[in-house]
Amino acid sequence: MKTALLLLLLSATAEAQDLRFLDPPALPPTNGYTHVVEVPAGYRLVFLSGQIPLDSSGALPGGADFRSQVKQVFENLRAGLAAAGADFDDVLLEVEAIAAVPERRGR
């Protein structure tokens, strides 16, 4: 099986003290995350999505090696953030979807 990795990052240039982190009592307890984060108006948001483990030439570094694929995805994310004048320190939210894609035989 081949594995695809997709990440979505949200970057806010707001200072931490400007963000509102809310865990409403009507929602279940959390462990390591906050249910609601409010970014005040006037701050810049940057969205990155659809990052896959291909390099800038379209090649798949490391072939089917999952660790190499993940490393390439994070290099792509770093490049995308840099293009927007941001880095991983600016990331407010990261959502990962890892999907196994069965190989198609005979096609």
Task: Report on the architecture of this protein.
A three-stranded antiparallel β-sheet has the order 4-1-5, with helices on one face. It is built from one helix and five strands; from the N terminus they run E-E-E-E-H-E. It has a domain of 70 residues. The two termini are 15 Å apart.
List its traits.
single chain; 107 residues; alpha+beta; three-stranded antiparallel sheet; two-stranded antiparallel ribbon; 17% helix; flat; disordered N terminus
Topology:
Elements: E1 2-12, E2 20-22, E3 36-38, E4 45-48, H1 66-83, E5 91-101
Antiparallel strand pairs: 1-4, 1-5, 2-3
How many angstroms separate the termini? 15 Å
Overall 3D shape: flat
Query: Biggest sheet: strands side by side, in what order?
Result: 4-1-5
What is the tally of beta strands?
Answer: 5
Radius of gyration: 17 Å
Helix content: 10-25%
Give, in order, the helices and strands.
EEEEHE
- Poorly predicted parts: 1-9
Name the structural class.
alpha+beta
Mean pLDDT metric: 77
Biggest beta-sheet profile: 3 strands, antiparallel
**How many DSSP helices?**
1
- Please indicate the percent range of residues in DSSP E strands (runs of 2 or more): 25-35%
